[in-house]
Design brief:
Layout: E1 2-6, E2 12-16, H1 21-25, E3 35-36, E4 48-49, E5 58-64, E6 67-73
Antiparallel strand pairs: 1-2, 2-3, 4-5, 5-6
Length: 82
């Protein structure tokens, strides 16, 4: 799940949280710790994580005004939350 994490107007970031499918189906709400995936000091909203990998990589659709970009990462754990 990707969502906008708001902690005041100076901290408007994109966060990523996940849960294992088996836990979700069994209503065991053991979510992994959320990661902040957008850069600090910038305002980001409306990111999209593609539902399947593309050429073995995760794809994230986002914008840096006025452009719309797609970035690819090998592992979502690459985001360190800073």
């Amino acid at each position: 799940m990707i969502y906008t994490a708001f902690d005041g107007w100076e901290s408007l970031r994109i966060a990523l949280a996940s849960i294992k499918l088996n836990n979700f189906l069994n209503k065991k709400w053991n979510w992994n710790k959320a990661l902040l995936i957008s850069p600090p000091g910038e305002i980001h909203k409306n990111w999209v994580l593609f539902p399947e990998k593309i050429n073995g990589k995760f794809a994230i659709l986002h914008s840096i005004s006025p452009d719309v970009l797609v970035d690819y990462v090998d592992d979502l754990k690459e985001f360190d939350g800073t």
